[in-house]
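Q: What would this chain look like folded?
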Amino acid sequence: MIVLLLLLLILPACAGRPAAPARGTPILMVSDRGGALRIYEVAEGGGARLVGSRDATDPGYSDTMPARLPDGRVVFVSDRDGNPEIYLAAAGGGATRLTTDPPDRPAADSAPAPLGRDRIVFARGEPGAPPGAPRDLYTLRLDGTGATRLTRHPADEAAPSASGDGRSIVFVSNRSGADRIYLIPDIDAPDPEAGAVCLSDVDAPRPSPAAEGDGPSDGEPAFLPDGSIVFRRAAAGGVPHLYTMGRGGAHAGLRQITDSVTLPFGASEPVVLEDGTVLFDTGPVYERGNPGGPVRFAVYRIALGGFNLTRVTREHATYRDYTRHLAER
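A: My prediction, written as structure tokens:
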């Protein structure tokens, strides 16, 4: 175990100094470096700018789950008004709320993602439902109108990602018992959920729901430019790593792109960057020789072939950096 801890903390061949983001659009990260969870744009050279908020220190609310829209703007989730809702970042550090709820029955919104040029897809719990209740998927225009429900399954549906043409989505559902990746090929079909197919299963689906701990747990899918999918998979009791698969699903073949030799604390929450590389986070990471010290999460980038692993965040930072912070960990 000590050897594995050292590998991540002194990884000169793969990490070395923090890597500068690629030229072009700054990358988005969630961090508590200012004292509370906020969203930052990190530009080439390491400069960071707050997005969607003017105050990084107020612990009374959290900003998480950012996603870059095709026009460069950023949508994210914030509980600044009392419950998690979708916001659109504005110039100067402000934000406009896109989702609304009945005042006496708030809903919990999560994981917004671009859907074509003028819509987003996101997950939402039933208004008034307790925390942790099952969610369904919705679409919404960027002016906050036209909310449309895509799924009505009693299972929990979460973490959607849309194809580049805005026609298909992949998402996570526990409708078979454990978390699996599902695809809706055409969200504008009369009944889009009727076309949903499971991409995770290598074998044919079982006639009855699987036990919660049976098989691997999949999550956090993201479409790649070629239409294939990168996602997080964890075996029972193991750390998660990143895999890719085509739209034909796991039975057509998987490719693992991270491993426990170089990343003993695993890899989660992949975000596809404009240069085709994948941003992800790893953790919790503990201080070497100080297991009771601060718990950290760090952000890395990797090429789809599983090479050119580089660390984006500071080597010995005491704060926590995430790509999206889709769930409490």
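The two ends are 21 Å apart (CA to CA).
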